[in-house]
């Protein structure tokens, strides 16, 4: 199990800006990943999120907990069998689910039918990692720009400098991927 503090700035962008950023910069790597989100009202109330990331046939279970600055991420590599058990509401015990015991939650209790597939383009910079994402979920396509940094103040200024080249504005982070997926499902039901 690994824990780290994630500090990121992110905005939704248009397809045109997405294409322009991809064309303007050296892409260090590109890959596809699918996030399977595990939802529960107790997590939502605390603004926690829980997901299984499927990338190159490797599976990572991640709990995200907001902090004063950034998000504490707890990551655990799991095998395909464990992933399937979780998505099928079977009991699984591990370090991540141990962190949810005080909330009286276990692996059998989550809504598991939310997923989002991202094609991610990464650009390394001296101040952090720029991720330019093409996201698909519930017949919706969106484009997102994320800047993952180690230092909040320096990283925010670097992010603002970067988006200024494209005449983009930033006031706060856009809605998270999991919240965009859930909102899209709720909007379909209306």
Concise account of the structure shown:
The protein has 190 residues and is of the alpha+beta class. It has a single domain (2-189), classed as Hypothetical Protein Pfu-838710-001. It is 29% helix and 43% strand.
Keywords:
190 residues, alpha+beta, 6 helices, globular
With strands numbered from the N-terminus, the spatial order across the biggest sheet is: 1-5-4-3-2-6-7-8
Beta percentage is 35-45%
Q: Count the beta strands.
A: 8
Structural class: alpha+beta
Largest sheet: 8 strands, antiparallel, barrel
| Poorly predicted segments | none
Question: How far is the first residue's CA from the last residue's CA?
Answer: 40 Å
Overall, the morphology is globular
CATH topology: Hypothetical Protein Pfu-838710-001
From the alpha carbons, calculate the radius of gyration and give it in angstroms: 17 Å
Task: Give the name of the CATH superfamily.
Answer: Hypothetical Protein Pfu-838710-001
CATH architectural designation: Beta Barrel
**What is the chains' assembly state?**
single chain
Order of helices and strands: EHEHEEEHHEEEHH
Quickly count the domains: 1
Mean pLDDT: 96
Text of the CATH class: Mainly Beta
Q: What level of helicity do the residues show?
A: 25-40%
């Amino acid at each position: 199990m690994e824990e780290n503090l994630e500090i990121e700035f992110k905005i939704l962008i248009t397809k045109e800006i997405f294409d322009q950023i991809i064309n303007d910069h050296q892409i260090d790597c590109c890959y596809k990943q699918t996030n399977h989100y595990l939802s529960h009202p107790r997590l939502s109330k605390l603004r926690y999120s829980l997901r299984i990331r499927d990338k190159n046939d490797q599976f990572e279970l991640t709990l995200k907990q907001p902090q004063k600055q950034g998000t504490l991420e707890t990551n655990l590599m799991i095998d395909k069998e464990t992933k399937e058990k979780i998505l099928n509401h079977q009991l699984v015990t591990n370090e991540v689910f141990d962190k949810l015991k005080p909330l009286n939650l276990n692996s059998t209790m989550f809504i598991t039918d939310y997923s989002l597939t991202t094609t991610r383009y990464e650009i390394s910079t001296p101040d952090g990692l720029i991720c330019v994402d093409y996201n698909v979920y519930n017949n919706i396509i969106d484009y997102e720009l994320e800047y993952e940094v180690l230092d909040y103040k320096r990283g925010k200024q670097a992010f603002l400098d970067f988006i200024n080249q494209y005449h983009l504005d930033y006031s706060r982070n856009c809605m998270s991927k999991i919240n965009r997926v859930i909102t899209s499902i709720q909007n379909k039901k209306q």
